Amino acid sequence: MERLLSIGLAAVSAGMLVFVLVRSLFAVRGEMDDRESGIRMLLALPAAYFIRRRELDRELARKLEQLEVLRIQAGCRFLDGATAPEIFAARLVLPALAVLFILTVGALLRLPAALVLPGLLLFAGLLYVWPETALKEMARTRTSRFIHDLPMALDVMRLVCQSGGDLYAAVRSVVEGIGDSPV
Question: pTM of the predicted model, to two decimals?
Answer without folding.
Answer: 0.69
